[in-house]
Structure formats: C-alpha cells, structure tokens
Amino acid sequence: MVASETCAFDIIGAEYVRSIEPGEIVIIDERGIESRRLPKARRALCVFEYIYFSRPDSIIFGEKVDKVRRHLGKKLAEEAPCDADIVIAIPDSANTAALGYAGASGLRFEIGLIRNHYVGRTFIVPHQRERDLDVKVKFNPVSGVLRGKRVVVVEDSIVRGTTLKQLVRLIRSAGAKEIHVRVSSPPVISPCFYGIDMASRGELIAASHRVKEIADHIGADSLAYISVKGMLSVVPAGKSQCAACFTGRYPTDIPADFTKGQFDNVCGAIID
Ligand code: SF4
C-alpha cells in the first residue's frame, strides 16, 4: 500500500515501512516492486507540510508532524509572547501549534471556535465568494469561553487574510476583549511554483503589506509571526527544506515569465 500520508496506514492497521524519496519512482506491477532513483540532486522538502498540509498524526520526511508543530508553537511563544488570558486555535490545522504556544507561555488553552467538519479546507475553494460563504458555515465561536477575555488566536499561516479577517470579527462578536493573532509560519511573500496553488503574488497580503497593516486589515489588536530563522530552527533538516514562499529564494531556477506573475497559479494542486 502507498499513501500520501502515514495516517492512512493507521486506519487499516498497515505498518509504515519508509517514505518514497524525492526523485524516486516506485513501480508496482505483477513482477513485484521496483525502485528507480534519479541521480543525486539537492533536496528541497516542502516546509509547508509541517506547518499546514499534513495531518498531525502523520510522519513526514521521517519526523512526526505533531512534534514539529508543537515546537513551532513553542518557538512562536518565545519570539512573540503576549499578555493575555487564554490561547485558542483556528481549528483544526492550528490546534497543535496552539497547544505548543499555550504550553510554553503558561496560558490556558481553550476551545474558542467550533469547526463544522462537513466543510472542506477554505483555501482550496477557487472563488472568493464561495470562500466567504465557506467561513460562515465552517466556524462557530464559543461565547462562554471568549466573553471578556484577552485572547491569543494561533493560526498556522496567512495567505490572503480574508478568512482570518472574518474569524477575528466572529471572535470579537462573541465578546472577546482583545484579540492577539500569532502565526506559526512566517509571512507568505512569494507564490509556490511547485504545485501548491496558494494564490498569485498580488493576492498574498504579506507581499505588499507590513505586519501592522495586516493587523489593521484583519481587525486584530496585535499580530506577530514566527521568524524564518525560528521556523527553520525547529523543522527537521531545516537547511534541506524549501521555504521559498517565506523567503522568495527558490531551490531551482524559476523562468522569468513565472516570476513576473503571468504564470502564477498554473501548477494544478492547491492554499487562504
Ligand atoms: S514554495 Fe512554499 S509551498 Fe511551495 S514547495 Fe516551497 S515551501 Fe512548499
């Protein structure tokens, strides 16, 4: 059995043996299993797998996602502490980082937002109007937890900022006294040309706005991100990771036409 995430093996009681390496092709046919590898090339593993894409109960690039995400939250708390009453997560993808933040800061972790699990990930919906509707049916605030509190809201990433803006409004409408957003990845400033359809450069809010401007845009009392250095210090094999969407430094040459923007979003797979 081959799967994109190891959590699939747990469900059927299969044993995780190893990962298919970058540049490796595994052929499974009636003759058996054959592995073919490209000549050795530089590795550039996608750091976003640890931040957002993969489930926390998976093992990615040989490390438990849950463990890495908690460390990201802990590092974020060290770099961006906050005088607040409680920590909540934007569920579900920021849950583990929020637990890491709460553990390191000594603040109580609370469930402040309930997610409707029958609605998919917001960022993969192609049009803004559908994304807006998605957010409304996807999250509900827990006013008993939030009312009168100074709340740290941990989010895994901000791409366009539209979802977070609505969520901050939702949390405030439930009675939160202060909202301090902490992000367990650095500002996304460059598009992905390797198959993740996260947005064109013009749509990336951090590509053209300062942190304070983003805080004002989403309506937060404060906003802070983990640094690139901090992120790479807790991600396994940090130097072998691709972090181009946070640094603008791509691990391969990118044709000039792509970087000018004409080909943003052409790569098929899909991130808000
Ligand atoms: S640019 Fe970002 S999303 Fe794309 S592969 Fe690199 S780290 Fe992953």
Task: Explain what you see.
The chain is α/β, with parallel strands linked by helices and 272 residues long. It folds into two domains: 7-37, no CATH class; 46-259, Rossmann fold, CATH 3.40.50. Helix content is 34%, strand content 18%. It has twelve helices and 13 strands. The chain has helices at residues 7-12, 48-53, 65-79, 95-105, 128-138, 143-146, 162-173, 205-208, 211-218, 228-234, 244-247, 256-259; strands at residues 24-29, 32-37, 45-46, 59-60, 63-64, 86-89, 108-109, 113-115, 139-141, 150-155, 178-183, 222-225, 241-242. It has a five-stranded parallel sheet with strand order 7-6-10-11-12, with helices on both faces. The longest helix is centred in the first third of the chain and has 15 residues, at 65-79. Bound molecules: iron/sulfur cluster. Iron/sulfur cluster is lined by residues 46-48, 192, 194, 196, 242-245.
Total strand count, please? 13
* Assembly level: single chain
- Characterize the main sheet: 5 strands, parallel
Bound molecules: iron/sulfur cluster
Strand order of the largest sheet: 7-6-10-11-12
Count of helical segments? 12
The CATH top-level class label of the largest domain: Alpha Beta
Helical content stands at 25-40%
Give average pLDDT, whole number. 88
H and E order:
HEEEHEEHEHEEHEHEHEHHEHEHH
Radius of gyration: 19 Å
Please describe the topology of this protein.
Elements: H1 7-12, E1 24-29, E2 32-37, E3 45-46, H2 48-53, E4 59-60, E5 63-64, H3 65-79, E6 86-89, H4 95-105, E7 108-109, E8 113-115, H5 128-138, E9 139-141, H6 143-146, E10 150-155, H7 162-173, E11 178-183, H8 205-208, H9 211-218, E12 222-225, H10 228-234, E13 241-242, H11 244-247, H12 256-259
Parallel strand pairs: 3-13, 6-7, 6-10, 10-11, 11-12
Antiparallel strand pairs: 1-2, 4-5, 8-9
The structure holds iron/sulfur cluster.
